[in-house]
Design goal:
- This protein is an alpha/beta fold.
- 41% of the residues lie in helices and 26% in strands.
- It is built from 10 helices and 16 strands.
- It has helices at residues 2-17, 29-32, 34-49, 61-70, 86-109, 154-162, 185-195, 226-234, 242-254, 270-276; strands at 21-26, 53-58, 77-78, 81-82, 115-119, 126-134, 140-152, 166-170, 172-174, 180-182, 200-205, 210-211, 220-221, 223-225, 260-264, 283-286.
- The strands form 5 sheets. The chain has an 8-stranded mixed beta sheet, with helices on both faces. A two-stranded antiparallel sheet has the order 3-4.
- Helix 4 packs across helix 5 and helix 7 runs parallel beside helix 9.
- The longest helix is centred in the middle third of the chain and has 24 residues, at 86-109.
- It is globular.
């Protein structure tokens, strides 16, 4: 009976989301834990089989660092961020567009899902320009081949979606002069979800969602809008590494995504719990 009730609870959500497009940012601990990865693949396969269109954008920072250590490549940092020179960007592209991208595509294909791995450089899928780090005193620091997204080839993605494919996107973008840029995967996923006007943009994270005070479980924020986010940032409630994540969420919603959910990827089957249950498990961001 419990299993039957779970299925009945999911029914209205299956009806609501059939034919809609979800963009999922895949990263964090779920990528490094084989059991969590297996459950993520199962969740995506089930979502696709009940009629939800899926686009996946993946990161891979830990694996890039591991490969850089393996080849003994010295990496410089500016303002706490890695400088991606011409040698580093080759490793970045190899790991992201090669190892991680094709492995994920292969795993989904094993479930009978038509998945296709894409670099942002394929058919001009992602166009970027150089990104600089700017400090509070106005100084700009060059991070090398680190980019920010300026254009998304949504026609390509829509063609793939309409023919039943699950696009899996590596956050490597092409520049306007033939450059290769490494782009933060959160921002790529946000840009893609905005361009596609996705029904949902889901960020898999290593945290339950947004807290007013990370040390106080009762301060968890289950729902927030753009104006509240701006207020929390100005008041210092949202700070540190959560600022760019929330800015990415705001950008996605402002560009056309219906809503954004930040969920804990460390929870088994977190995607299914978030999408097909009344309670959900993460922080919802709306306009």
């Amino acid at each position: 009976m419990n299993r039957a009730e779970i299925l009945i609870e999911a029914l209205p959500y299956i009806k609501r989301f059939a034919g809609k497009t979800f963009v999922i940012k895949y990263g964090g601990s779920v990528m490094e834990n084989e059991e969590l990865k297996k459950k993520f693949i199962e969740d995506v396969a089930l979502m696709k089989l009940v009629g939800i269109n899926i686009v996946i954008v993946h990161g891979g920072g830990k694996r890039i660092n591991a490969m850089l250590d393996k080849v003994d490549l010295e990496v410089k940092f500016e303002q706490g961020q890695r400088v991606t020179d011409e040698h580093v960007v080759e490793i970045v592209e190899m790991v992201l567009s090669g190892q991680i991208n094709k492995d994920l595509s292969n795993c989904l294909s094993a479930h009978g899902i038509h998945a296709v791995g894409l670099s942002g450089k394929d058919s001009g899928l992602l166009k970027a320009e150089k990104k600089y780090v700017e400090t509070e005193d106005g100084k700009k620091y060059d991070l090398g081949f680190v980019g920010q997204i300026k254009e998304v080839n949504k026609a390509l993605l829509k063609d793939l979606i309409e023919t039943g494919y699950v696009p899996i996107i590596s956050p490597v973008a092409g520049g306007y002069e033939g450059e290769t840029y490494n782009v933060n995967a959160d921002y790529v996923a946000g840009a893609v979800s905005g361009a596609l006007q996705a029904e949902k943009f889901i960020l898999l994270s290593d945290i339950k969602g947004l807290y007013k005070d990370i040390n106080d479980e009762d301060s968890f924020v289950s729902r927030i809008n753009i104006n509240q986010i701006k207020q929390y940032i100005s008041e210092g409630i949202i700070s540190g590494g959560m600022i760019p994540k929330m800015q990415c969420c705001m950008d996605a919603v402002e560009k056309g995504a219906k809503e954004v959910a930040i969920i804990d990827g460390r929870v088994a089957h977190s995607l299914l719990i978030e999408i097909f249950t009344d309670a959900g498990i993460g922080t919802m961001v709306t306009k």
